[in-house]
Amino acid sequence: MTTDRNVGAKSVKSWKQSAHHGAGEWLAERGTSLVLIPLTLWAAYAAFTVAGGGFDAAVAFARVPLNAGLIGLTMLISVWHMYMGIKVIIDDYLQGGLRGFTLFLNILLSAALLIATGYALFVLHQGA
């Protein structure tokens, strides 16, 4: 006589596999969060500094190489963090073709944001 007590239970091998599945993504999400703390504080300071100065003050601020680099770094890490967060939501809640399509849209959105930021910074420095 067999028992159905273990039906649906995971084997020891599958538990070991799942113990490390996603650990790299989890660490990357936490790492980007930690890096974004000082970058966000810098961005708030920068916004406070530029506020009230108008468009010309904002352009002058962004033309300083250090500020442009920090803007680019902030956007790069923010978009990477956003991409990973949306990917986790998609992986958790969507299946099949819809999952693949939304993962593609996530990549497309992330790439568009990075390209737009890079282009804006490039054009800004061409006019300097």
TrEMBL record:
Transmembrane segments: 34-52, 64-83, 103-124
One CC-aspect GO term: membrane
GO molecular function annotations of the record: heme binding; metal ion binding
Pathway noted in the entry: Carbohydrate metabolism; tricarboxylic acid cycle
NCBIfam families per record: succ_dehyd_anc
Keyword Transmembrane assigned: yes
Compartments (UniProt record): Membrane
Membrane topology per record: Multi-pass membrane protein
Job description of the protein: Membrane-anchoring subunit of succinate dehydrogenase (SDH).
Quaternary structure note: Part of an enzyme complex containing four subunits: a flavoprotein, an iron-sulfur protein, plus two membrane-anchoring proteins, SdhC and SdhD.
UniProt xrefs under Pfam families: Sdh_cyt
Cofactor(s) this protein cannot do without: heme
Matching SUPFAM superfamilies: Fumarate reductase respiratory complex transmembrane subunits (SSF81343)
InterPro entries the UniProt entry points to: SQR/QFR_C/D, Succ_DH_anchor, SuccDH_FuR_B_TM-su
Protein name per its UniProtKB record: Succinate dehydrogenase hydrophobic membrane anchor subunit
Keyword entries, A-Z: Electron transport, Heme, Iron, Membrane, Metal-binding, Transmembrane, Transmembrane helix, Transport, Tricarboxylic acid cycle
